[in-house]
Amino acid sequence: MKKLFYLGIIGFILFEIANVYFIMPMPGSQAMDSISLAYFLNKLRWAFRGLFGLMAVLGMKAAFSGTGWKKWLPAVPLVVPAFVFYQANFEMAADMMFYQPTHKMLATLAENKVDSSRLVLGVEYAGEAKAYPIQFLGYHHQVPDTIGGKPIIVTYCTVCRTGRVFEPLVNGQPETFRLVGMDHFNAMFEDKTTKSWWRQVNGEAVAGPLKGQALPEFPSIQTTLEKWSELYPNTLVMQPDVSFQEEYDSLANYEAGRRKGKLTRRDTASWQDKSWVIGVELDKASKAYDWNDLQKQRIVQDEIGGQPIVLALSQDSNSFVVLQRADIAQQFSLHNDTLKSGDLRFDFIGKSLQPSVPDLKRVRAYQEYWHSWRTFHPLTEQ
Fold first, then answer.
1. What would the pLDDT profile of 59-78 be if each residue is shown by its tens digit?
2. Spatial contact of 24 and 92, defined as CB atoms under 8 Å apart
């Protein structure tokens, strides 16, 4: 019975470690296909805790049956599971490390306090435009909002360098999410209703009752705030929440690729794990383009899945866009962020500058770490 006490203590400790190990960026954890195991442990966490706790209780009398000071010696191991439980469920829990804004405020350009050189995720719908600085999104991971009457969640994962905007609709109903951990270095959310787990990189449910479903993605574009403001002068801009200024300051050099940490640094050489790429999705095809190459060429004309596209990099060397070309023969040049093809003229994001000419269709494109793009697009071209 004394062994039962110690087995219960050891089992409890190992369970708490395993419960957080598989969903946090620990050595080796993110390289495994362990999401099903992680979800199983999380779903039955109170059953496991109860089992190991019961084992310790049943063996407690025998463990404390000694005499003198030895009688109280088994009390020492009880401190360890309490410490591990606190660390795993409070200090190391994703939603206890990264919080949503408590005072979310969006301001007009006249009232804006965010530096215009900052990168933003921009969204536009039904005549309304909003910009969300990556510096803030990188800490919060998700910012719930609305645009043009539609609910959206603006998300970002700094370890993958992935910015995505989704409609938080599950089975046609609005849903709320909490940050629960990571899967293959990508942020993962849990919905409040079914407790399913969803990947940030593509909005897909990877565990739980809704596994296989996906959140509708909302069109977004990554630019500098200055470029976005030129395109949408009536935009609103997310402002810093004073409650998290220290956290924002810690990410001040992230978007420029100057962080030194293993998870969020930048490899300046091409096609390394932490190299930047532009990942493009068109129908079922995907392709990655080297960021260094795009900075040299400024404009790249190519095909994906047989469909002609053009990639363009702004004169600010940070804002980019990918657009569909009418056909393979159509060629573009870039002049002061105006796209020209023969007599046709378009602004940087493909809006026609001639009333009789239709706009160019924007293609989903993201700046991302190479390790992330190839992980979630295993059939990608490059």
1. 988 888 866 666 677 777 78
2. yes
Q: Which residue has the tokens 């993110």?
A: 30
8 A C-beta contact, residue 217 and residue 164:
yes
Strands 276-282 and 285-290: antiparallel
> 342-374: per-residue pLDDT in tens?
999 999 999 999 999 999 999 999 999 999 999
Q: What is the DSSP string of 223-252?
A: EEHHHHHHH-TT-EEEPPPGGGHHHHHHTT
> Which of the 8 DSSP states describes residue 64?
T
Distance CA(145)–CA(101), nearest Å, equals 11
Cβ atoms within 10 Å, residue 10? 16
Report residue 272: phi and psi, to 5°.
-100, 170
Within its chain, how far is the Cα of 34 from the centroid?
Answer: 19
d(CA 298, CA 295): 5
Chain Cα centroid distance, residue 32: 19
Residue ranges covered by each domain of the chain? 2-92, 106-250, 276-376
Helices (DSSP H) in the chain: which residue ranges?
Answer: 2-21, 35-43, 45-63, 75-86, 94-97, 134-140, 225-231, 245-250, 291-297, 370-376
CATH architecture of the domain with residue range 276-376: 3-layer Sandwich (2.102)
This prediction's pTM = 0.94
Distance in angstroms (rounded) separating the CA atoms of residues 205 and 298 = 36
